[in-house]
């Protein structure tokens, strides 16, 4: 059985349906998705935008390692991981993950593990732009 991992990072809006249509689902019985979007408010303050800076040479490699590990650990059939860079506006998608597997429990587990690892490992830094100013958020993602 072939297993498929696709990853990308872009400063263009994420085409979630396009990514879903490219997912390898042959033999899958479930697809679980996670979309992380920009909140319009954080801690009572209006958010104008988030800005993501990535170590662009390293990011695809890290996403690919996370994807491969997610496949192996959770018996996934395929996984797609996409992350925005640059300026992202409220309501826009920051990160999109699709995990497919023969059974839903594995797809849910794989998707959940993947977003946790991405936030822990991916070389991406986030700046929050609000009405009262801009500041970098401590830690990754």
Descriptive report:
By secondary structure, the chain is α+β, with helices and mostly antiparallel strands. Helix content is 29%, strand content 40%. It has three helices and nine strands; from the N terminus they run βαβββαβββαββ. Strands 3, 4, 6, 8 and 9 form a five-stranded antiparallel β-sheet that branches. A hairpin with a 2-residue loop joins β8 and β9 (133-136). The model has no long low-confidence stretch (mean pLDDT 94).
Poorly predicted spans: none
What is the overall silhouette?
A: elongated
What structural class is derived from the secondary structure elements? alpha+beta
Profile the largest sheet.
Answer: 5 strands, antiparallel
Strand content: 35-45%
Helix fraction, binned, reads 25-40%
Elements, N to C (H/E): EHEEEHEEEHEE
Counted by DSSP, the helix tally is 3
Terminus-to-terminus distance: 33 Å
State the main characteristics:
single chain; 141 residues; alpha+beta; five-stranded antiparallel β-sheet; four-stranded mixed β-sheet; 3 helices; elongated
Brief overview, please?
By secondary structure, the protein is an alpha+beta fold. It is built from three helices and nine strands; from the N terminus they run βαβββαβββαββ.
List strands and helices in order, with pairings.
Elements: E1 4-10, H1 16-22, E2 30-37, E3 41-42, E4 45-54, H2 59-74, E5 78-84, E6 86-88, E7 93-101, H3 104-121, E8 124-130, E9 133-136
Parallel strand pairs: 1-5
Antiparallel strand pairs: 2-7, 3-4, 4-6, 4-8, 5-7, 8-9
């Amino acid at each position: 059985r072939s297993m498929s991992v696709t990853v990308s990072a872009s400063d263009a809006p994420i085409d979630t349906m396009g990514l879903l249509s490219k997912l390898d689902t042959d033999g899958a019985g479930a697809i679980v998705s996670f979309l992380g979007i920009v909140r319009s408010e954080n801690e009572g303050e209006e958010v104008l935008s988030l800005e993501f800076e990535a170590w662009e040479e390293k990011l695809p490699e890290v996403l690919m390692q996370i994807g491969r590990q997610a496949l192996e650990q959770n018996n996934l059939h395929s996984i797609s991981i996409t992350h925005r860079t640059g300026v992202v506006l409220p309501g826009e998608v920051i990160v999109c993950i699709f995990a497919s597997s023969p059974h839903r429990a594995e797809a849910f587990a794989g998707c959940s593990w993947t977003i946790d690892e991405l936030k822990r490992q991916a070389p991406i830094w986030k700046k929050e732009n609000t009405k009262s100013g801009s500041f970098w958020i401590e830690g990754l993602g």
